[in-house]
Write a structure and sequence with these properties.
- With 69 residues, the chain is mainly alpha-helical.
- The chain has one domain.
- The chain is 70% helix and 0% strand.
- The protein contains four helices and no strands.
- Helix 2 packs antiparallel against helix 3.
- The longest helix is centred in the middle third of the chain and has 20 residues.
- The chain starts with a helix and ends with a helix.
- The mean pLDDT is 79.
Length: 69
């Protein structure tokens, strides 16, 4: 889980298509991971790790989260 979640503010942000990669690949992957877990304790862990990324100081990450909510 952690390597996937780390991609939210990881090396992908250096690419021109950062938002496209997140929307098309990473978001569905993390979403399916949360659904497949089928365990509230593990789901909460995934959710918490993703929510921590909303605190990123990187403007691209902050903009992405503000645009999907």
């Amino acid at each position: 889980m952690q390597p996937l979640v780390n991609q939210i503010d990881g090396s992908l942000q250096k690419l021109n298509s950062y938002e496209g990669l997140l929307i098309e690949h990473l978001v569905p992957c993390v979403g399916q991971l949360a659904v497949t877990v089928a365990n509230d304790a593990l789901w909460k862990s995934v959710n918490y790790q993703v929510l921590l990324k909303t605190r990123s100081e990187n403007p691209k990450v902050s903009f992405f989260f503000s645009s999907i909510t």
